[in-house]
Amino acid sequence: MLTFLDFFINHEDGYYSMNSAGYYVLIAVLLISCVLAALVVDRRQKNTRLSPKRLAVCGVAIAMAFVLSFFKLEMPYGGSVTLFSMLCICIIGYFYGIKAGLLSAFAYSILQFFQSGGSYMLSPMQICCDYFFAFTALGLTGFFYQKKDKFILAYILAILARGLFHTIGGYLYWMDYMPDTFPKALAQLYPFIYNYAYILVEGAVTVILLKIPAVSKMFRRLQAMAE
Asked: CA-CA distance, 24 to 20, in Å (whole number)?
């Protein structure tokens, strides 16, 4: 007898896995949750008006992220570690709030799409998962606006959110493109390993950089100057 969950979950040989409908529902839940949370937080955040100075800083940060994304190290199974490009986008939300963070990250997602995604598309939803949803998630650091010394936590949560959208897109569209050299025992984890491998490597290097006292001091000074 079919149950409501059977429309979203496959059950074969004692194992459960989410089907396409389940992933679409998960995407919808994530997006609705993010939007509602952003709306609530934006109404509570003070001093988030985008002045000409702040707009200029956002533009420079986006431009720097785009340039740095061309400097990259390719990972064995795909994906690439860039030269701190995610850092440049994540600081916008942390400096100026959730509205500026998400709008700037969305603008960056468009640049990323034209840089590497515009020449090969499987479907509109695939493009959204791999580019628009994933890179816009870097703006979630805006939830930590005006929270002192919380940038590293904000950064980690934002890049994990980016990886989640990439991973969902991987399960929906890229499983058939898994290389033959990928370990068969880990086949069901392919999208997770593929995406989080390069994201977490770049994230770890960035956190190490930010932990250097001189860099940490410079970051706080930059934040004060950006106000």
From this structure: 6
Residues 6+ apart with CB under 8 A from 221: none
Alpha helices in 45-128 (DSSP H): 52-68, 85-96, 98-112, 124-127
Res 10: pLDDT: 62
- Contacts by residues 51-58 (CB-CB < 8 Å, ≥ 24 positions apart): 53/226, 54/96, 54/100, 54/226, 57/92, 57/95, 57/96, 57/226, 58/92, 58/96, 58/100, 58/104
7: DSSP letter: G
Per-residue pLDDT of 171-206, as tens digits, reads: 999 888 888 888 888 888 999 999 999 999 999 999
**CB burial readout 13-50, b (16+ within 10 A) else e:** eeeeebeeebbeeebeebeeebeeebeebbeebeebee
Q: Per-residue DSSP letters for 122-190?
A: S-HHHHIIIIIHHHHGGGGGGGGTT-TT-HHHHHHHHHHHHHHHHHHHIIIIIGGG--TTS-GGGGGGH
